[in-house]
Amino acid sequence: MSKWVGAWLSCFLVAAPAAWGEGARMDVTAARGALDGNDAEAAVVAVEALGQARQVVPLLDALADGVHPDVAVRALQALQKIGDRRAEPTYFAYSRHRVAAVRAAALPGLAKAGREGEKRIVAALGDPAVEVRAAALQICTERRWAKVVPQVLVLFAKGDKATAPALAAFGDPALAKRITEMAGKVPDDLLAQALAGMLGNPKFGKEDDYVELVSTIGHLPGDEPVTALAAFLGTQPQDSTRPSVQAARAIIEERLGGVK
Q: Are 86 and 60 in contact (CB under 8 A)?
C-alpha cells in the first residue's frame, strides 16, 4: 500500500465512525480516487466506506470503469446491502464476469430483478464453477423455486456437492425415493448428506416418512450415515419419543455398539 493511500486511509478510518450514516457527508472524491488506483487493499476499504455511506453512484461508476475482482466482489455486496434498483444492470453484466467469485457475488442482486433476473440465476446452475452453482442454488432454495429440482437432480447425478443442501430444502418423500434410487451412481457421502438434510426439514412429511428416511440412511454404507443420524439426534430432545428418533438411536447402537 502506497504512503499517500496509507495516510488517507488512516484519516478516513479515524473520521468514519463519527461521520458515516445515512445521509452523512464523506470525502467521495478521495474514496473514488482509491478505487481508481492500483492498490486493491485500499480500494476495498474505500468500497466499504462508500457502502456504509450509501453512495451508490460512485460504486456503480467504479464497476463500470472496471476494478480488481476482489474489489468488484465487495462493491457488488455493498450495492446489494443498499438495495438500490439502479444497480440491476450492473448485476447482469457482472454475472458474466470472467472470474467465478465475481459472477457468484453478482447473482444475489438479481433475485429481485424480475423474470430476467430469475432466468439468469437459473442459467447459472450450469456454470462451470462450483461456487457460482452453489450461489445460484442457494438463491433458488431461499426463493423456493421448486421448478429447478430437475436441474438440481442432473447436477446431483454428476456428484455436484453444492446440490445436497438444495435437495434437502426441497425434500419430500417422493424426492427422497428418487435420489435413493441413485445409490451406487452418486458418491455415498453426497447421497447421505442430501438425505440427512431432509431429516432436518420440518416440511418433509409425516412422522412415518421420517422413520422411513432414517431407515434408508441407516442402510447406506460408510461413516457418513452414522454421522448424519447422530447430528439428527443432536437436534432432538433427549427424552423425545418420536419414532424417527428411536429408529435413529437403534441404528447407531447397532452400528457402533451404543451411544450416550
A: yes
Do the beta carbons of residue 109 and residue 118 sit within 8 Å?
no
Which burial class, exposed, middle or buried, applies to 225 when counting CB atoms under 10 A from its CB (0-12, 13-18, 19+)?
Answer: buried
**Cα 1 from Cα 118, distance rounded (Å):** 40
Angle formed by the axes of helices 130-142 and 149-157, nearest 10°: 150
Q: What is the pLDDT along the chain (260 residues), one digit of tens a residue?
A: 444 444 445 455 434 444 444 444 557 777 777 777 678 888 888 898 898 889 999 999 999 999 999 999 999 999 999 999 999 999 999 999 999 999 999 999 999 999 999 999 999 999 999 999 999 999 999 999 999 999 999 999 999 988 999 999 999 999 999 999 999 899 988 999 999 999 989 999 999 999 999 999 999 988 888 998 999 999 999 899 999 999 999 999 998 874 44
Length of the chain (residues): 260
- pTM for this structure? 0.78
